[in-house]
Design brief:
The chain has two domains: 191 residues, Clc chloride channel (Orthogonal Bundle); 197 residues, Clc chloride channel, CATH 1.10.3080. It is built from 19 helices and no strands. Helix 3 runs antiparallel to helix 7.
């Protein structure tokens, strides 16, 4: 009688042989997918660079018009807001808003989304053009969210053309590479995929995301150089300063960011009769929002128009800015977001956060100004987006502030907790619900 039963050993041997066969076949099956991912990454990297360049051109054109005719925004901004909203409602409703909720919804139902409008090239083209029009009208929008949706659409299109199966990983990889290419921050793209886009982050998806982000990052690096998005911030804080400033910044930023998210989500699913009436006339409401943005821009001499990049960079580098910048930018970004027109909230949120940090300098005048501003930025951004890891990596990469990583993490975690108490539902996931419901109906 044998000491060891041979049946389990035979079964293990059979399983091992099958696994070896799978391991040999896997590389052959992976080749088309890797080729498609590589081509898609190069294409979306080039798109992100072109989008960024045209976005800057649009903003500068608007500022030139305002310099020639200071009160032109009172007509131009509401008109363009209304026109963009009409086009969006009439021909491309999936292009409205940031674009990140659409990618979240598409990744959860890739079988439906691969042939649907959420991440189609048609929607991406509308998103591209309409976001530029919003910047041309002075809208307080960013290009990062739209870049995520456009990048995911490019990845899906390339995979379809090469007849490679489209999975959640394809959509997630495209969206993550969009973040990396928009900010020139590869690590932030990977972190964003983990925190926001992927509900189940498997190893195979991780490899695809990292490879796609790397290629898109190399394209950006090769074309634009190793630039630092917000400029270099080399200041640091002492441990005693961090223990005081981080809780204050985290509380204020989390409170304001949570309030922003709560208002946006409340308007997206209105229960009050007045809000329902406003939503029933989207074009007129968008024009009213555009008028509000125009008035704020004129009152602040143009500080609240566009992404707010220039003022944010100025604050990060330690230069002064008016105290009213943060509050006015908050309302400009809120009005633009509520209008429902295409455009992202990443850059405006970082800009509002810089304004929050600018106000906090009054409380902490003896501490390095740039460091305090950075804590305000991470606090408000986390309060809105609720992605602490992504926020910390974005800011550490876009400001080269490696000495601030631990203070940034401390502030981000506090802001996340405070924002959760104000608005339990995460902004992008709440905004993704209508798209998910539509996809579920199509699947049924």
């Amino acid at each position: 009688m044998p000491f060891i039963d041979s049946k389990p050993l035979r079964r293990l041997n059979i399983l091992w042989k099958r696994g070896a066969g799978d391991r040999q076949a896997a590389p052959r099956e992976e080749i088309p997918r890797r080729i498609a991912s590589g081509i898609g990454a190069v294409a979306l990297g080039l798109m992100a660079l072109i989008f960024a360049k045209l976005g800057d051109v649009s903003q500068h054109m608007f500022l030139k018009l305002v310099a020639a005719w200071p009160y032109l925004p009172l007509i131009l901004t509401p008109l363009l807001f209304g026109l963009v909203m009409y086009i969006t409602q009439r021909w491309t409703p999936e292009a409205r808003g940031s674009g990140i909720p659409q990618v979240i919804a598409a990744a959860k139902s890739p079988d439906v989304s691969s042939n649907g409008p959420l991440v189609s090239i048609r929607t991406a083209a509308f998103k591209f053009v309409l976001t530029l029009v919003m910047l041309l009208g002075g809208g307080s929008v960013g290009r990062e969210g739209p870049t995520v949706q456009i990048s995911a659409a490019i990845m899906v299109w390339v995979h379809k053309r090469l007849r490679v199966p489209i999975t959640s990983g394809v959509i997630i990889a495209g969206g993550a590479a969009g973040v990396a290419a928009a900010f020139n921050t590869p690590l932030a793209g990977i972190a964003f995929a983990i925190e926001e886009l992927a509900s189940a982050y498997e190893q195979r998806v991780a490899v695809m995301v990292m490879g796609t982000v790397m290629i898109a990052g190399l394209v950006s690096l090769g074309m634009s150089g190793d630039y630092i998005y917000f400029g270099q911030m080399s200041q640091t804080l002492s441990v005693s300063a961090v223990l005081v400033i981080a809780p204050v910044a985290g509380f204020v930023g989390g409170l304001l960011g949570g309030l922003f998210s709560r208002v946006v989500l409340g308007f997206a699913s209105p229960k009050h009769a007045l809000l329902q009436r406003l939503r029933s006339r989207p074009v007129i409401f968008a024009m009213a929002c555009g008028l509000g943005v125009a008035l704020l821009g004129i009152a602040t001499h143009g500080a609240t128009w566009g992404t707010g990049y220039e003022t944010t960079k100025q604050l990060v580098e330690g230069h002064p800015a008016p105290l009213w910048f943060g509050p006015t930018k908050f309302f400009a970004a809120l009005a633009t977001t509520l209008s429902g027109t295409p455009g992202g909230i990443f850059a405006p949120s970082l800009s509002v956060g810089a304004g929050v940090g600018n106000m906090l300098k009054l409380i902490f005048p003896d501490d390095p100004a740039g460091a305090v501003v950075l804590l305000g930025m991470v606090a408000y951004f986390v309060g809105v987006v609720r992605a602490p890891l992504t926020a910390v990596i974005i800011l550490s990469e876009t400001t080269a502030s490696r000495g601030m990583i631990l203070p940034l993490f401390a502030t981000a975690l506090i802001a996340d907790g405070v924002s959760t108490m104000i608005c339990r539902e995460r902004l992008y996931h709440g905004l993704a619900k209508p798209f998910l419901a539509k996809a579920a109906a199509q699947r049924a």
